[in-house]
Amino acid sequence: MDKKLQSVFLTLLAILVVFIGLVYIGGNMMGIERLQTGENPVLRFVFVIIGLLIAFAVYYATRTNKIWEVGTREVVWMAIGAALYAVLSWLFNGTVFFVPSLSQVSLRPAIAIPMFFGYVFGPVVGFFSGAVGNMFGDALTGFGLSPQWSIGNGLVGFIAGLAMLFPSRKKGLDTVFYVSGALVLIAAVIYLLNRDQVNMLFFDVENNIFGDAQISPLAAFSILIGFLLVLLVRFVFRENIDTAAAVTWSMLGNIIGIGFAAISDIWINGFSPAAAIVGEFLPAAGPNLIFAAILVPLLVAAYAAVQRQSGR
Fold this sequence. Notes:
Elements: H1 3-29, H2 41-61, H3 72-92, H4 112-121, H5 123-141, H6 147-161, H7 173-193, E1 203-204, E2 209-210, H8 217-236, H9 241-268, H10 273-310
Antiparallel strand pairs: 1-2
C-alpha cells in the first residue's frame, strides 16, 4: 500500500475508532452519561462516515501532493492540537469558568486551534485536531456527544489545511474568498426569511434549557461581521500572504464544516432546514468566523516568530 494512502487511511480510521470507543464502549457499555449521544446514534455515525469519506475523496483527488505525507512529526502535532482544542473547548464552554455571551452569541475562541493546526501542519493534522479535540472537549464538558458535529469541526481544520495544495498561497485565494462570501450572503438571506426561528444553540443557564428564545440579530449577523473582519485582515495584511491565506481558508473551513454539522441535524434531529441554518449554523459559525479573523493571524504571527528565532 502506498505510504501516503496508508497514513491518511489509518488517521481517518483512528478518528472513527476513537469515536466508537467513546460512544459505544464508554457511553453504552459502561453507561457513562456524558459519553452518550441521545437519539439516533446510528444515523449520527452515518454522517461521521460521510464526513470521513469526504476527507478521503479530497485526498484521493490530490493524492500526488506531498501534503498528505504523515510522519512522526505530524502525529505529534495531531496529539498536541487535539489536546489543546479539547482543554480550551472545555474551559470556554463554561465548565471551568463561565464566559457571558452577548445577546446569544456563543464564545468559542478555541476554534482557532484546528484552523491554525490545519493551515500550518496540513489537512490531516487539522482534521484530527478538530474532530478528536471536539469529541473529547464535549466529553469533558458533559453536555453529551454529537459525533457529527465533531466531524464538522474536523472539516474546519481539514479545509484550512488545503491551502497547502498550492505552491503559491496566492493561487485560488480570491476564489476561496468569493465562494465564502456567497455562502455567507445566502445564510444571511435565509435568516431574514426566518427571523422567528429559535436559537437551538442558545443555552439558558438559569433555566438549564436550550433553544428557548428566538435568535437575536447580533447572533444572526455575526457571520457578516466575521466576514467583514476577514476582509479587513486581507486588506491590512495584503503584503503578508501567509496571514491572508490562513484567515481566508479558515473562513471557508468554518462555513463548510459547521454547515455540514448543522445540515446533518435535518435528518438526525428532524429539524427543518430553517432550524438547521438559522437555529444552529448561524449562532455557531458566526462567532467562529470572528475568532478566526482575530486569533488565527495572532497564532500564525507567533509561529512565524518562533520559526525565525529557531533559524528554520
